[in-house]
TrEMBL record:
InterPro entries: CsbD (IPR008462), YjbJ_sf (IPR036629). This is CsbD-like domain-containing protein. It comes from the Bacteria. Keywords: Membrane, Transmembrane, Transmembrane helix. Belongs to the UPF0337 (CsbD) family. Residues 4-54 form the CsbD-like domain. The keyword Membrane applies. The chain crosses the membrane at residues 63-80. Gene3D superfamilies: YjbJ.
Amino acid sequence: MKSEQVEGVAEKLAGKAQSTVGKLIGDSKMEAEGAGHQAAGQLTKTYGDTLNSVSTFVKEKPVAALAIGAAALILINRIFRR
């Protein structure tokens, strides 16, 4: 598990707690901030999941990963040459 995944889950849980406390005490600003933290946590976790998937793919299929990287570089080079 990547550190980004752990950070994302922790931030999402903290946001959920903040949102719940805001709802309980009737503080809509706190509730909205909690929802924002939940969304940020989900994004961070998704980023970690993506890193994990890419890392696994590169370990399992290094030649395919190298070919994809080379193709991406050629495409980027052609786009920026114009």
